[in-house]
């Protein structure tokens, strides 16, 4: 089947679906499924806009609300993960995943589903070490801290995914797995995004949690977004035994959804012809959720997942074939995800703007039904209970508890990861893309015309094959660079030159207004990007 993959959507659903329809008209290419790798921006109304971690001047309604209201319907089944520019209050209603609009499905904090026999997993958010070991404690109305921490990846989601044993076909993350840049055309990446150099050379660009999952899951495909640049890599994994067949992952990072940008990729994926056209639950994933339900935590305090270190009676929460069979029997072998989308908030009305509406913490009926069906904890219900219990204890006691949580969950708390870089350079440690001289060329090591006149060929995107060590350690830069130089000389790597006049008229920005940032002035490539100087300093 044909699968379309998109990078950061930033709420431009009309543009994304129009591009797919144009491909169909011109080339008779109709994808069966659309995957979006975060920054989807499922914004329903003005309250949702206030829950999105972007400067006020970049809070635009865009077009999702038309799909939420039923005015429009997605022409293709769409599955997405969350990024770091989302209506966090909306996505928080669906921690285990669910429909945000008819035919548009969110995978939740982490999730695995099936479509036509293809197993698709993903993890939402970006990595920050100071929040990684906390529970999901945030709820609207958010403050300046929780509006950001709400989209930070948590260790419990990574732990759940690491319990999976069955093969994954496709996996999505918003930020890149750390070290993945060493398995593609690194020279070309640094040529176009030179401000990544420090993190690339120190091997701190990207998410260590995502690298851990890549090492464990070894999916056939891994798609990411976040850095607003197209980049491909091909990675062979080490085998654990002589009997184990070698596995490889095709990695592709997508650009953001803007005109004249190559933000979509079409791939052909082997599927089960006998499978239906409905999105389905994954039985092993449901079994893992049931097995790890006791680990649910909504505390702000930092905590570790069970390990085989002598401190935990149980550390292996992977599930047996019998447990998977029990899930199938509970569902009468009908894994179809019910189309139970429900409106849980008023929809934006352009004729009646509601600028002063406040976001509220909502329990979504989809989550209630899902938890009741499988005997799981409703995280949002648990958060509300915790808030109520805190108010009963009294203000003084609550303050003491908060101080204790702060002391155990601060950025100074030791972490299993020694850095909190989420995948961006020191110039912009939270997704804001600032380009230096030159155009935003295609870094996929192949020549791809981004226009619908030339449908992309995913198979040509991969050329550099490397062995991925268990520790994610890489060989010397000299060895990596020499390999890439050979690729470039062979003509395998070509860049797509963008000649849009709008891309040439760039706004020059610098550090802070006092001129004491020590960062040289660089040009802004994305004029509609979600960025502000204070954002650069805080995240």
What would you call the shape?
globular
Ranges where pLDDT stays below 50 over 5 or more residues in a row are: 394-399, 401-415, 419-539
N-end to C-end Cα span:
39 Å
Helix count from the secondary structure assignment: 18
The CATH topology label is Purple Acid Phosphatase, chain A, domain 2
Fraction of residues in β-strands: 5-15%
Just name the CATH architecture. Answer: 4-Layer Sandwich
Give the CATH level 1 class.
Alpha Beta
> What's the CATH H-level superfamily name?
Metallo-dependent phosphatases
Question: Strands, helices and their partners?
Answer:
Blueprint: E1 2-6, H1 13-27, E2 33-36, H2 46-50, H3 64-69, E3 78-80, H4 88-92, E4 98-101, E5 104-106, E6 110-115, E7 118-123, H5 129-132, H6 146-149, H7 155-161, E8 170-173, H8 186-192, H9 197-201, H10 208-217, E9 221-224, E10 231-237, E11 248-253, E12 264-268, E13 279-281, H11 283-291, H12 321-330, H13 365-374, H14 379-393, H15 395-408, E14 465-468, H16 477-490, H17 501-504, E15 507-509, E16 522-524, H18 533-538
Helix pairs in contact: 11-12, 14-15
Molecular structure report:
- This is DBR1 enzyme.
- It holds the Pfam family Metallophos.
- It comes from Glareola pratincola (Collared pratincole).
- This protein has helices at residues 13-27, 46-50, 64-69, 88-92, 129-132, 146-149, 155-161, 186-192, 197-201, 208-217, 283-291, 321-330, 365-374, 379-393, 395-408, 477-490, 501-504, 533-538; strands at residues 2-6, 33-36, 78-80, 98-101, 104-106, 110-115, 118-123, 170-173, 221-224, 231-237, 248-253, 264-268, 279-281, 465-468, 507-509, 522-524.
- The chain is α/β, with parallel strands linked by helices and 539 residues long.
- The strands form three sheets. The chain has an eight-stranded mixed β-sheet with strand order 13-6-7-8-9-11-10-14.
- It is globular.
- Mean pLDDT is 79; it is low at 394-399, 401-415 and 419-539.
């Amino acid at each position: 089947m044909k699968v379309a993959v998109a990078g950061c959507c930033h709420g431009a659903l009309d543009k994304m679906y129009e591009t797919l329809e144009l491909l169909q008209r011109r080339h008779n290419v109709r994808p069966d499924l659309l995957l979006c790798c975060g920054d989807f921006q499922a914004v329903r109304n003005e309250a949702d806009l206030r829950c999105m971690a972007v400067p006020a001047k970049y809070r635009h309604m865009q077009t999702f609300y038309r799909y939420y209201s039923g005015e429009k319907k997605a022409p293709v089944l769409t599955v997405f993960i969350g990024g770091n520019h989302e209506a966090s209050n909306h996505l928080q209603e669906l921690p285990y995943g669910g429909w945000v609009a008819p035919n548009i499905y969110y995978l939740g904090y982490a999730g695995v589903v099936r479509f036509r026999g293809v197993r698709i997993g993903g993890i939402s958010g970006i990595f920050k070490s100071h929040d990684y070991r906390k529970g999901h404690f945030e709820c609207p109305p958010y403050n300046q801290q929780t509006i950001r921490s709400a989209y930070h990846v948590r260790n419990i989601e990574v732990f759940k995914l690491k319990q999976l044993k069955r093969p994954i076909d496709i996996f999505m993350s918003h930020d890149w797995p750390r070290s993945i840049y060493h398995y593609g055309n690194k020279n070309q990446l640094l040529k176009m995004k030179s401000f990544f150099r420090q993190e690339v050379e120190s091997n701190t660009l990207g998410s260590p949690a995502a690298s851990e999952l890549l090492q464990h899951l070894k999916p056939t495909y891994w798609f990411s977004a976040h850095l607003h640049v197209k980049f491909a890599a091909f990675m062979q994994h080490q085998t654990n035994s002589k009997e184990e067949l070698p596995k490889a992952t095709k990695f592709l990072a997508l650009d953001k959804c803007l005109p004249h940008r190559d933000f979509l990729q079409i791939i052909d994926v082997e599927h089960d012809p006998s499978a239906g056209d409905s999105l389905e639950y994954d039985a092993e994933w449901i079994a893992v959720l049931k097995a790890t339900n006791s680990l649910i935590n909504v505390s702000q305090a930092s905590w570790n997942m069970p390990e085989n270190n002598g401190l935990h009676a149980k550390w292996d929460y992977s599930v047996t074939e019998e447990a998977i069979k029990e899930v199938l029997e509970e569902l009468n072998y009908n894994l179809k995800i019910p189309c139970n989308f429900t409106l849980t908030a008023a929809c934006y009305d352009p004729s009646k703007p509601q600028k002063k509406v406040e976001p509220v913490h909502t329990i979504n009926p989809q989550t209630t039904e899902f938890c009741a069906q499988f005997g799981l904890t409703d995280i949002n219900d648990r958060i509300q209970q915790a808030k109520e219990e805190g108010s009963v204890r009294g203000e003084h006691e609550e303050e003491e508890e908060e101080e204790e949580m702060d002391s155990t969950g601060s950025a100074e708390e030791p972490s299993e990861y020694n850095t909190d870089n989420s995948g961006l350079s020191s110039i912009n440690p939270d997704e804001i893309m600032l380009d230096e001289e030159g155009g935003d060329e295609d870094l996929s090591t192949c020549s791809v015309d981004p226009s619908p006149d030339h449908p992309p060929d995913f198979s040509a995107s991969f050329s550099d094959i490397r062995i991925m060590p268990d520790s994610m350690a890489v060989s010397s830069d000299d060895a990596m660079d020499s390999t890439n130089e050979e690729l470039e000389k062979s003509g395998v790597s070509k860049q797509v030159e963008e000649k849009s006049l709008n891309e040439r008229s760039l706004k020059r920005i610098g550090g802070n207004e006092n001129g004491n940032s020590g960062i040289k002035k660089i040009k802004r490539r994305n004029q509609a990007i979600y960025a502000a100087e204070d954002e650069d300093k805080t995240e």
